[in-house]
Amino acid sequence: MAKKNISILGSTGSIGVNALKVCSNLRNDFKVRYISGYNNYRLLAAQAKLYKPDFVVTSDTNYMNVKKRLKGFKSVILCGDEGLKRAAQDDKVSVVVNAIVGSFGLKPTVYAAEKGKNICLANKESLVMAGSVIKKIMKRTGSSIVPIDSEHSAMLQALNGEDRSTLEKIILTASGGPFRNRKGSLRNVTVQEALDHPNWSMGNKITIDSATLMNKGFELIEAVHLFDIPPSKIEIVIHPESIIHSMMQFIDGSVIAQMGLPDMKIPIQYALTHPGRTHLDQPRLDLAKISKMTFYKPDRKKFPALGLAEAAAKEGGTLPVVLNTVNEIMVYKFLDGKVKFTDIIKSVEKEMRDHRNKKEPSIEDIFELSGELWKKLN
Ligand code: NAD
Ligand code: MG
Question: Are residues 156 and 88 in the same domain?
Answer without folding.
Answer: no
